[in-house]
Amino acid sequence: MPEQHYEPEPAVAGAAVGGTVDVGVEEAGTLKERPKGRGGSGPRDKPRSLWSDAWRDLRRNPVFIVSGLVVLFLLFVSLWPSAIAPGSPLKCDLARAQEGARPGHPFGFDGQGCDVYTRTVHGARTSVTVGVLATLGVAVLGSVLGALAGFFGGVWDAVLSRVTDVFFAVPVVLGGLVLLSVVTSDTVWPVIGFIVLLGWPQIFRIARGSVLTVTRNDYVQAARALGASPARLMLRHIAPNAVAPVIVVATIALGTYIALEATLSYLGVGLRPPSVSWGIDISAASPYVRNAPHALLWPSGALAVTVLAFIMLGDAVRDALDPKLR
Fold first, then answer.
1. Would you state the pLDDT for residue 33?
2. Angle at which helices 50-59 and 293-321 pack, to 10 degrees?
3. Which helix (H) or strand (E) segment is 11 a member of?
4. CA 158, 164, 170 angle in degrees (round to 5)?
5. Residue 289: pLDDT band by 50, 70, 90 thresholds?
6. What global pTM score does this model have?
7. DSSP-derived secondary structure for 237-290
8. Rounded mean pLDDT, 154-168
9. Which whole-number Å values give the CA distances from 112 to 115, 160, 274, in the listed order?
């Protein structure tokens, strides 16, 4: 019998238009093994994390860029106010009281003859310092207590949850009037301590809920089954994946705390003279707003821009870190 020669069947590969084409065996293997990258060639793209995706989205968000630039400028002014306002905010001349703008004094003078521009610039240091330090204190205290309550549960969760309910029942402004009225210190620490005292329950609830959600994930259960200690579970697996909501809420709350400091200073129970604060200047300029509106306009405008910048920054961070919005 004559020998029969069998040719290898051609492999079938998908065409770009959705059909199929016949290719050889070697070509099919090449197509199968070719790494998928940009343009169908090159190394495979590494999987991106939540933080890398968030940073990529933030760089493309004009709200984040604008608010970030404003916040960076405010931080620069807070650290080096003399760089753009070399005068002393406590140097006043009663002969120039309530005068308008003039060369060298673009914002005019207040009721005591102090340069409004200099006091507005130097007032940023106090307001931003109170906001940043209070936010750090609230975030650390609320996150630690919330993580303990969410991770251990039981008595820890029940006791801390009831304590937070008590603090939520205290009105913030009324609490400030009662607690800060008996403090005689002229520094920022009593105001920071008061904000931390009444602000941590909000972060506590956010951190507790986030930890409870992350704890139910499979990778946490697998690590626990493999014998990971509670400290390793919390620091290695839970905390990095539960911290995003805390960062978002803390960023938005920073602007709120700056407004709260100005409110307390306006009411006379926050910072007191000779401290330089936007709340103090707004309070001092209120009685003669008709005669010298500029003395009220500039510190009020600086406060509004600062609070708005931090709130916009927090909104942009929230949009970038929330997977549901992708």
1. 44
2. 140
3. strand 11-14
4. 145
5. confident
6. 0.79
7. IIHHHHSHHHHHHHHHHHHHHHHHHHHHHHTTSSS-TTS--HHHHHHHHGGGTT
8. 90
9. 9, 49, 13
**Confidence class of residue 27 from pLDDT cuts 50, 70 and 90?**
very low
For tokens 């913030």, name the residue.
Answer: 172
Is cis: bond before 201, omega within 30 of 0?
no
Helices (H) and strands (E) in the chain, counts: 13, 2
Q: Output the CA torsion sign for 85, 89, 92, 96.
A: positive
Two structure tokens written together for 171: 């009105």
In angstroms, the Cα distances linking 294 to 21, 100, 116, 276, 303 are: 78, 7, 8, 17, 14
Say yes or no to pLDDT of 21 above 90. Answer: no
For range 86-100, the mean pLDDT: 87
Tokens representing 39 are 């343009």
What angle, rounded to 10 degrees, do the helices at 50-59 and 62-79 form?
90
Q: Is the preceding peptide bond at 190 cis, omega within 30 degrees of 0? A: no
DSSP at 234:
I
Is the model's pLDDT at 290 over the cut of 80? yes
